[in-house]
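Quick question, first post here. What does this chain look like in 3D?
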Amino acid sequence: MRIISIIFFAFLLLGCNDQSQPTQKPIRPIMWAKVSLSSLEQIRTVSGIVAPVEAAELSFEVSGRLDSIEVNLGDEVKKGQELARLNQRSLSLAKQSAQAKYQQSKASLADAENSYNRYAKLIKQGVVSQSGFDNAKATYDNNISAVDVAKAQVDIAIKDLQDSVLLAPYDGIITKRTFEPSQQVSAGQLAFEIEGEHGLEIQVLVPETLIQQLTRHAILAIKFPVLPQIKMLGRVTEIGTRAESANAFPVTVVLQSENSLLRAGMTAEVEFIFEGVGRTGHKGPAIRIPLTALSAGLQQKTYAFVYDETTQSVRRTEVQTENILNNEVYISSGLQQGDIIATAGIAFLLDGQKVTLIDYTTQRFN
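> Answer (accepted):
Ran it through. Tokens below.
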């Protein structure tokens, strides 16, 4: 019994001399990124309408009844191909009448010329009076004018006959047809619409706040809401000098490639990218960082955590924000090119805290 008491007392002494070892806090790994200078871009998206580069409304230049229509909606046509024809009976008769009057006026001119030449000889011989010669000359001059008028009437009749056949002005596709055979058509009344095969363009109205930033031949990004998988580039070819509705200026942007899914009349979204001005008036390069790399402080101050390679810790640094674009923030001061910043878990970091950088080169498997 005495031996057991001694052993118990010895263990009690050893327990009193045992000191607890302090636990070491684990070093937190952080997501990180190395920052670099970037231009302070601003993007404004403006809606526009897809339209053909080449399009025209076709109509007859003479009135008449439609005899035939050779094309339908959506047909492809070639330059000079017949689209429709008016009844030509009355036009042919008008041409014949004009030609007959022309021949008659030429015969009258021949008689007047002979009479004038005869009077010109006789006046020199003193056989006829001066008034008789003057009348012969006036008749001759009038007949010359009558022949010119009759010839012009023939040309007009021939042109009217030619205009009774509507031809395609260039290769393209018929996008609209407004008449059926046997209908009466007036001169200048819309009959067809045709679109050429020279590509598509975007017609957009640009606000007055952006028009000064735009230049001809600028390349812009274009998206289509109904076709989100399609993204194309367009070149500015026309910039209007006079504002239209809502103080917006017409601008034409020609697509630089083709896509069979696009149709005239679709909605397009044109992105205007230009060098911007920050909210503090800053111009020029800025540092672009993820929105998740920022933390808010008192008095509307904003901070980022910068990694110090020497101490292997992060330093809470105040930064000046200028603009936000696509979940990225433009910083004008507080960071330097090449700085390494924490990009996630900012709420759990402290100023001076020891951290390690996650190795992005290591491949991880779930």
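The two ends are 61 Å apart (CA to CA).
The chain is about 25% helix and 35% strand.
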